[in-house]
Amino acid sequence: MKFLDEYRDGDLAQQIAREIHRVTTQPWNIMEVCGGQTHAIVKFGIDELLPKHITLIHGPGCPVCVTPLEMIDKALEIAARPGVIFTSFGDMLRVPGSTTDLLSVKARGGDVRIVYSPLDAVKIAEQNLAREVVFFGVGFETTAPATAMAVFQAAQKGLTNFSMLISHVLVPPAIEALMSSPNCRVQGFLAAGHVCAIMGYEEYPPLAAKHRVPIVVTGFEPLDILQGILMCVQQLESGRAEVENQYVRAVRQQGNQPAQRLVREVFRIVPRKWRGVGEIPASGLGLSAAYVAFDAERKFNLTEHRVDEPADCLSGQVLQGQIKPHECPAFGGKCTPEHPLGATMVSSEGACAAYYRYRRHSAAETAFAK
Predict the structure, then answer these.
(1) 94-111 pLDDT, tens per residue?
(2) Radius of gyration over every alpha carbon of the chain, rounded to an integer in angstroms
(3) How far is CA 135 from CA 26, 138, 259, in A?
(4) DSSP conformation class of 245
(5) Are 204 and 171 in contact (CB under 8 A)?
(6) How far is residue 147's CA from residue 86's CA, in Å, rounded to a whole number?
(7) Tell me: the pLDDT tens digits for 143-201?
(8) For domain 10-61+171-245, which CATH number applies: 3.40.50.2020, 3.40.50.11750, 3.20.20.370, 3.90.1740.10?
(9) Ordered strands of the 267-274 beta sheet
(10) CA-CA distance, 215 to 208, in Å (whole number)?
């Protein structure tokens, strides 16, 4: 099948779905890595178009969801300090820490501001030289270049009142960790197209070869996802384990090389803890030695501490694809978007939030029937 020029065509969606049914002869478990893809799958009922023995496993591809509890607590500690302007993307404000969230800190008088770009935080620092301005840098490789550019510009401007609380994470080490787990059920991956638009996909062939799993770089429209699933199933059925690019209109194998150079200059690779998953070696970005003056953890002398996840929250199992969101006993009861136990119910890309918004009634009916 040719690569898509038109990606909102209902007839073509049915055609691709029929082709998936035709080529599928046995059960397969496929993980979509990105939370944006998860939302599209649940919203548009893509999984309901597939053969019943194809299982889509929702991966840990939501940057808000995997930001560790300890990092949220550090953000809360900084934001509550007098003289600090704490800036963040809006979806981080309601993520629960161990005791509260950033929105509550703001309600109690903390100067917590929503920004739409890390460069907005640099402007705020320029306009408030007598105050410390901190930006909460989270996300995968997709948002890392913008964070790096903000640090680079702050250095060029000589801003000493600007710093970053960094919690950027990397996708390939997460795939390696998932595939190395003895509980892993994944047989193929849909890789996140926007991550690969930045980083390319040259890191993926060794993973595909080592673990014998197909990896298909996939976009976010329903037809993109359906075609990505078809390409993955075709590989599985033929016994291949290769890297293919469905998202050719946006992704090149080498990615965005100027963006990569900036990321390599500003950041270094570090171990990073993932909420609900644990520490994954070489899976995060931290500021390099040349830019360490902009490290908020060092500037505010934040000590390391460990925090346990709420016992009622099974988001870690959701993030690892071990259960579906509605299989958590707290789903829709103790845990709702208004009163979340974990980040997967808060984030606009969280799997629990997607199921609550689009599937909670059908989930409740299934539970009642049992």
Answers:
(1) 888 888 999 999 999 999
(2) 21
(3) 48, 9, 20
(4) E
(5) no
(6) 15
(7) 999 999 999 999 999 999 999 999 999 999 999 999 998 888 999 999 999 999 999 99
(8) 3.40.50.11750
(9) 111-114, 84-88, 132-139, 162-169, 278-287, 267-274
(10) 6
